[in-house]
UniProtKB/TrEMBL annotation:
<keyword id="KW-0963">Cytoplasm</keyword>
<dbReference type="GO" id="GO:0005829">
    <property type="term" value="C:cytosol"/>
</dbReference>
<feature type="binding site">
    <location>
        <position position="77"/>
    </location>
    <ligand>
        <name>S-adenosyl-L-methionine</name>
    </ligand>
</feature>
<feature type="binding site">
    <location>
        <begin position="128"/>
        <end position="129"/>
    </location>
    <ligand>
        <name>S-adenosyl-L-methionine</name>
    </ligand>
</feature>
<keyword id="KW-0949">S-adenosyl-L-methionine</keyword>
<dbReference type="InterPro" id="IPR003682">
    <property type="entry name" value="rRNA_ssu_MeTfrase_G"/>
</dbReference>
<dbReference type="Pfam" id="PF02527">
    <property type="entry name" value="GidB"/>
</dbReference>
<keyword id="KW-0808">Transferase</keyword>
<dbReference type="InterPro" id="IPR029063">
    <property type="entry name" value="SAM-dependent_MTases_sf"/>
</dbReference>
<feature type="binding site">
    <location>
        <position position="147"/>
    </location>
    <ligand>
        <name>S-adenosyl-L-methionine</name>
    </ligand>
</feature>
<keyword id="KW-0489">Methyltransferase</keyword>
<feature type="binding site">
    <location>
        <position position="82"/>
    </location>
    <ligand>
        <name>S-adenosyl-L-methionine</name>
    </ligand>
</feature>
<protein>
    <recommendedName>
        <fullName>Ribosomal RNA small subunit methyltransferase G</fullName>
        <ecNumber>2.1.1.-</ecNumber>
    </recommendedName>
</protein>
<dbReference type="GO" id="GO:0070043">
    <property type="term" value="F:rRNA (guanine-N7-)-methyltransferase activity"/>
</dbReference>
<keyword id="KW-0698">rRNA processing</keyword>
<feature type="compositionally biased region" description="Basic residues">
    <location>
        <begin position="218"/>
        <end position="227"/>
    </location>
</feature>
<comment type="similarity">
    <text>Belongs to the methyltransferase superfamily. RNA methyltransferase RsmG family.</text>
</comment>
Length: 238
């Protein structure tokens, strides 16, 4: 998916990108490739692959969720800024917070947001476990996203404490796993969440499946969650 195909595909979804937004995606691509030579940000560096598997893939959240364009969103472990930075380009009024445990990725994201001229983007070098216990961030976000490879019961403990009541935790998965979802349901319930639905989509051109798991925050998360750094991964909630 080259840039013009990307633009046409979004237009078919009733999203018309401006020339400025297209220029921002172009700069994003070039900065990603440039910085990737210095640090491991992504294994995907070919232009058509970046536009399909990073940019378009990230925007599926907005396409399928009818996001409030003025919402507060937190992206946990966003790596090179996915899905939050493409969403911010699409919806400039979003308030975006990104937390990542690797300082070098935060350095890249700071340079990226500066170069793209994005405002109201807040970057934090922190573990999700300690970030979620900070009263300044706990239960403050309309949406919390994770596009990570960790299992859902682990992601739920890292993300749900940050979601405000009636907000949503959105987990993006490349593969469908009913077993993983069933395994995570007790953790989701203990953390105050409720599984709402799974939205299945296919990427254009490649046909690769993507799965968006929608979990709503129904109750305040017990204070003990998230537990100390490392524990959610070593001893997931059963």
């Amino acid at each position: 998916m080259y840039p013009e195909e990307f633009r046409k595909q979004l237009l078919a979804e009733d999203i018309a990108l401006t020339d400025q937004q297209m220029a921002q995606f172009d700069m994003y691509f070039h900065l990603l490739v440039e910085w990737n030579e210095k640090m491991n940000l992504t294994a995907i560096t070919e232009e058509k692959e970046v536009y399909l598997k990073h940019f378009y893939d990230s925007l599926l959240v907005g396409l399928k969720m009818a996001l409030n364009p003025q919402a507060a969103i937190c992206d946990v472990g966003s790596g090179a800024g996915f899905p939050s930075i493409p969403l911010k380009i699409l919806y400039p009024e979003l308030s975006v917070t990104i937390v990542d445990s690797l300082k070098k990725r935060i350095t890249f994201l700071q340079e990226l947001t500066d170069q793209l001229g994005l405002t109201n983007v807040h970057l934090y070098h922190d573990r999700a476990e300690t970030f979620g216990q900070n009263p300044a961030f706990r239960e403050q976000f309309d949406y919390v996203t994770a596009r990570a490879v960790a299992r859902l019961n682990v992601l739920a403990e890292l993300c749900l404490p940050l979601v405000k009541k009636d907000g949503y935790f959105l987990a993006l998965k490349a593969a469908k796993s009913d077993e993983e979802l069933q395994e995570a349901k007790p953790a989701i319930a203990q953390l105050g969440g409720k599984f709402i639905e799974e939205k299945t989509m296919a990427l254009p051109l490649s046909g690769d499946e993507r799965h968006l798991l929608v979990i709503q925050k129904k109750k305040v998360t017990p204070k003990k969650y998230p537990r100390k750094p490392g524990l959610p991964n070593k001893q997931p909630i059963k």
